[in-house]
Every structure is written in structure tokens, then in C-alpha cells.
Automatic annotation (TrEMBL):
Cofactors demanded by this protein: Mg(2+)
Residue ranges of every copy of the DAGKc domain listed in the record: 1-126
Biological classification of the source: Bacteria, Bacillati, Actinomycetota, Actinomycetes, Pseudonocardiales
Keywords recorded for this protein, A-Z: ATP-binding, Kinase, Lipid biosynthesis, Lipid metabolism, Magnesium, Metal-binding, Nucleotide-binding, Phospholipid biosynthesis, Phospholipid metabolism, Transferase
Protein name, per record: DAGKc domain-containing protein
Family annotation (Pfam families): DAGK_cat, YegS_C
Recorded GO MF terms: ATP binding; ATP-dependent diacylglycerol kinase activity; metal ion binding
Family under the similarity heading: Belongs to the diacylglycerol/lipid kinase family.
Gene3D superfamilies tied to this protein: 2.60.200.40, Probable inorganic polyphosphate/atp-NAD kinase, domain 1
Amino acid sequence: MRLYTAVVNPAAGRGAGGRVAAELVTALPRGSVEVVAGRDGAHARELAAAAAKGGRTVLAVGGDGHAGVVAGAVADTGGLLGIVGVGRGNDFARQLGLPTDVAGAAAVVEKGHERAVDVIEAAGRTVLGSVYAGVDSVASEIVAARPRVPGGAVYQYAAVRALLTSRPAGFRLTLDGVEWAERGWSVVVANSGWYGAGMHIVPSAEVDDGLLDVLMIRDSSRWALLAALRHVYDGSHVGRDDVEVRRARTVTLTADRPLPVHADGEPLASGSVTVTVRPAALRVLA
């Protein structure tokens, strides 16, 4: 019988993590699941590493940021990861086509196939989805402040507010040694194509191609971008003249002024960061 350790972020989904973990205990074979709660990211990583070293399958029960922390520990120990998304976004689970209900997630955990996927390394952290700076990171800060906006609408609210209050920056990127300098609204360095609870920001991104897809939104009309925001959900925004995507294995990002750099909804760095892909570094159930 496969043994599992569910590493829970108690704050995920407004406290739903513990409830979902309890439901997993019932849904999976009796005696196969132990539940542990991470006090913070460092503690969650420690718990995941110990479980993986002990030969247990590690379940990340939380949002995208928590899944990245747990995934880093699992990848470093050569373990096996299951993802049970209970955050507001759950965008890496969306990229993998994972179910969002507990019964469906339990079925994947118990009967799913192993898949090797890429991960991002940036600023000493493992990231599953994407690293971004500009209007995207400003929006991420707005979401983190927990405005009184219901459910997934908080991401739309944050995107609109960020576009209204931000201004373009001068970005200087180095992609595998090749420089790319533009004035723009945002840069997204993506392993997974989704962010913001269902925005298909980089549709070309694949988690098993050994490459990072780098999207630049160039300096253009604020009002035109606001009008085009709806196109981000189906990925059709990449056809715009002010959007360009390139690919690389290592990307260095700097800006002409201090900008927050975020990754999967969490603060990562400020102003400058180097982002590298680790091909097929993580074994995950899907």
C-alpha cells in the first residue's frame, strides 16, 4: 500500500486546507495518510523533505505558492508529489489537468500515473508556474492584501487596479546570453501557461519541454490593455502587436527602477532576478 504525507497550508482557501486533508484521509485507503501542517514555508519544506526521504508520497494541500515550496523539497530528494489544490488560483493543477474536487484529486493520487515535469529555480526557491515583474506583480500584491472582493473576481479586480495605477518600466532581459531590452508593462517568465485563477497568460508554455517561455507586454495604451484584458482568459492576447514571446533556459531580468518580482502569487525578489529551468526535475502524479 502506498503511504502518503499530506503537507497542509492551514491558511489556504481561507482555512479549507485542514478540511480537505481530513476528507483525503477518508477518501484514500485506511491508514495510508498522515496529515501534517506547515507553520510557514520553511517548516512545510522540512516536513515534505522528511516524508519524501522516508519513501512516502507527499501531497501538497494548498495553493500554488505552497505547492512550489513542497515540490522543491520533493524534487531535491527524488520523491513523488501529488497536488491537491485548495488555494484561490490552483493554476499549476489547471496546467496538469488535475481535478479540483477532493474525490477526483484522491483518485489521481491513488491511481494516477507518474509524470516528470520541469520546475523553475529563482532566488533560491522552486517555482512551478511563473515569475513575473511589472503590472502582474503589482496585481499580485493587491490580491495578497485581501481586498473585499468575492472569490476569483479578486484577480480581475487586481488586474484592472494595477493597470490603472502602474506605469511601464524599462526592462533589460538576458535570454541564454542574448539581450532583449524593451519598455513595457510586464514580463512573465513561464514554466506553466496559467496564472491568476484561470488567465492563460502564456499559452505556449509547456511543463515538459525543458524551456521557459518569456512574455513581454510592450509599452502601449493603458486603455487598450484594459479593453483587451478579457482576452487573457483564452490566450488570444498573444496575437496583439504589443505582446511578444521568446524562449530560453536561463533568463536574467532587471528593470530601470525597483519593481517587485513575484512568483506564483508570492513575493520573490526586487528589481533583478535570474530564472532557470530544471528540466524533468519533479515526479508528479497526474
